[in-house]
Here is the input.
Amino acid sequence: MTLWNETKSVPVSKEQVWEAYRKVRSNAGSAGVDGISMEEYDAKRSGYLYKLWNRMASGSYFPPPVKEVEIPKKDGKMRKLGIPTISDRVAQMVVKDYLEPRFEKIFSPHSYGYRPGKNAHGALSVVRENVRMPDWAIDLDIKGFFDNIDHGKLMLAVKKHVPEKWCIMYIERWLQMPVLTKSGELKQKQGKGTPQGGVISPLLANLFLHYAMDKWLEQTHSAVRYVRYADDAILHCRSKVQADYVLRNLNKRMKQCGLELHTEKTKLVYCKDHRRQGEYENVKFDFLGYSFQPRTTKSKRDGKLYLGYDCAISIGSKKRIAEKMKELGIERLTHKSIVGVAQYLEPYIRGWINYYGKFRLWSMNPVFQWLRRRLVMWARKRYKRYKTSIVQAYAWLKRVKEQYPTLFYHWRLGFS
Here is the structure.
């Protein structure tokens, strides 16, 4: 790529813009309010990136509105995302890349969401360790977190660590960006909220919760273990008395920060197992697509079964996979052979297993049985001889598996 030779007042280099573009491009994503797709952007990227650098480096860059889109939430409701234009995603990435290393130095090791070198599986592993000792867990849910981040309080935290005026200027502009709703209305911010979907939003959200919750917890309730992933958190307490006390204080703390705990979704959970035999209403919580609850477990020492407390894919996650299978229309695929079907489904099956099969893979067996049924339905539509006999269709799939045991990803792992 040709780099431009020009000196500007704001220290944003051409190399920073190019590196940010490379990251945005690898993340793909849809078009913003300007309707420019990644393919269209790529075709004229030199012009787009030069214009962006020219404006950012002179301090004259103003972000366009974000495009509002809706995606389904776990509870069936819709979550609103704000999709910036591709150029604005690049601009946000420039500032994110610039600030992230210094924020990383202050962030808690107990925070796992949207951080380099940390992920959901890491958070789940720590929760698995934590539930073995303290008897109680607080399953925390912050009501409309991204929509209610107070701009004034957030900027106090930003200015504590960011002396560069140009960074502050652009962050304030992004916070004030209006949202273009699906009905075509421009909705102005009212001093709070940062759109989910923005590149810099997760970094700012982590900074806000670092002071609103992480640092506060570590200073006022140092005996409480916790794991936070973005705005989802699990706190571990020794007793119900301690859990009640911590939750009361946490409610007050959230209100001080302009936030509110979701009363229906935030709950105390008793981690019942063979040692902890108390009778309480809540013995289960969901975290990052997994359900933690009492489960039959085999001892590594002597192979005997006992009641443990562990995680496996949640019912909600299984339902979402089933819905995705329906959406894919497996039984209506027009591939000429089962080989084409397997190749088409490979990335989906691999993705489900890589995430939800990390812990207690065998709990995904119902998912594989649903897939098996849909493959049989595909065979009955594809081959006339199986239209009238589902038994023969199942027998055919069994023969395929015997002849080609590595055809489907889950077959390679010993599932049918």
Summary: DSSP finds 15 helices and eleven strands in the chain.
